[in-house]
Amino acid sequence: VHDGFYTRICQKYGNILNEKELQLCCLLKSDFSTKEISVVIQQSIRTVYQRKTVIRQKLGMEEKEDIAEFLSKRI
Question: Which Gene3D superfamilies does its entry note (predicted)?
Fold first, then answer.
């Protein structure tokens, strides 16, 4: 994933996000759509949206803020 992105996100947010949330962040950073992510992780689209909401809450983001963009600016 993107030049050590996983290592950097684990260092910065590994104490805040769980393994599934970190995986989701990596997929978002790799430009996967919500539908594509649901296929990869074998979960419903609704579950993916719920996980994205939890990630935003844990990281103190706005409700509709783009997670990949947010992380790109901070990692």
Answer: Winged helix-like DNA-binding domain superfamily/Winged helix DNA-binding domain
CA 11 – CA 41 distance, rounded (Å): 23
- CATH number (2.30.110, 1.10.10, 1.20.81, 3.30.420) of 2-74 reads 1.10.10
Residue type, 23: Q
Q: What is the pLDDT of residues 45-72, one digit of tens each?
A: 999 999 999 999 999 999 999 999 999 9
**Domains in the chain: boundaries:** 2-74
> Max Cα separation, the chain?
30
Q: Is the pTM of this model over 0.85?
A: yes
Write down the residue that tokens 């509709």 correspond to. Answer: 64
Q: Which of 25, 37, 36 is nearest to 71 (CA)?
A: 25
